[in-house]
Amino acid sequence: MCAVLAALLGLAALRLPCAAAADLRADLRGAGATFPAPVYAAWAAAYLRENGVSVAYDAIGSGAGIERIERGEVDFGATDAPLPADELTRRGLVQFPVIVGGVVPVINISGIKPGQLKLTGGTIAGIYLGTIRKWNDPRIAALNPDLALPDANITVVHRSDASGSSLLWTDYLARSSAQWRTQVGSALRPRWPAGVGGDGNEGVAAYVQRTRF
Question: In sequence order, what DSSP letters do the residues of the chain get, joined into one string?
Fold first, then answer.
C-alpha cells in the first residue's frame, strides 16, 4: 500500500475577542488549527516562564476553533481560513496572521526518497479525484522516467474534520483542474471523491506512516 497526504500546513490566523485583548486573565484558552499547535506550545511555555500566565491550546481543527471562539468558549481561535471582514465585525472579533506555512503532498513509497517524485497540480488532482489509482500510471510515469514506480494502489489520505488547510489544498486543486473545480470545489470540509480521512494532522500523519508499499 502507498499513501498520499496533503500535509496540513497553511496560513494560520489567531483570532481574539476585542475584550480579551484588554482584559488579560491569569489563564488563557485557545483552540483551532492543528498546524500551529507545536509553535503555540513553545510560545506558551516561554510566556509562562516570563509572565506566569498559562496558555492552553486544543488542536481540534480550524472549523471547530471558529465555532468555539464564536460561542465565547475560548479566548482565541486559530484558523487557516480567514473570516470575511463583515463576520469579524458582527462577532466583535479581530483576526491577524501569526504563522505562514506551505501545503504540500507527502508520499510513503519504499525506495523513493524525499523530493524525487515529480507531480503536477493536474496529476495530484487526478489522484484525489480517484481517476489516477496506481503509482505506475502513465501520467505519473511520464513525469518520472528515471524512477521505478511500483504497480501498487494509491491510498489517498485527507482530513476528516473541518480544516482550513483542506480549504487551501482544495483551492489549489480547483485552480489546477477544471474537473476538480466543477465537481468538488474548495471548502473547509469538502466532499472528498476518494481516499480515507484522518482526524487532525496527527491522524493523517499516523495513517500515512503505517501505509507503505
Answer: -EEEEEE----EEEEEEHHHHHS--SEEEEEE-STTHHHHHHHHHHHHHHHS-EEEEEE--HHHHHHHHHTTSSSEEEESSPPPHHHHHHHTEEEEEEE----EEEE--TT--TTT----HHHHHHHHHTS--BTT-HHHHTT-TTS---S-BEEEEEESS--HHHHHHHHHHHHH-HHHHHHT---SS---SSSEEESHHHHHHHHHHT---
Cell 502513465 belongs to 138
Q: Are 168 and 11 in contact (CB under 8 A)?
A: yes
Q: How many Cβ atoms from other residues are within 10 Å of residue 194's Cβ?
A: 17
Distance CA 75, CA 27 (A): 10
Per-residue pLDDT tens over the stretch 90-135: 888 888 888 887 778 888 998 899 899 999 999 999 999 999 999 9
Determine the residue type at 43.
Answer: W
- 3-state SS of 143-193 is CCCCCCCCCCEEEEEEECCCCHHHHHHHHHHHHHCHHHHHHCCCCCCCCCC
Partner residues linked to 17 by β-bridges:
93
CB 167 within 8 A of CB 186: yes
Does the model's pTM come out above 0.85?
A: no
Distances from the Cα of 195 to the Cα of 124, 145, 208, angstroms: 13, 26, 12
* Partners of 153 in beta bridges: 134
Cell of 148: 521505478
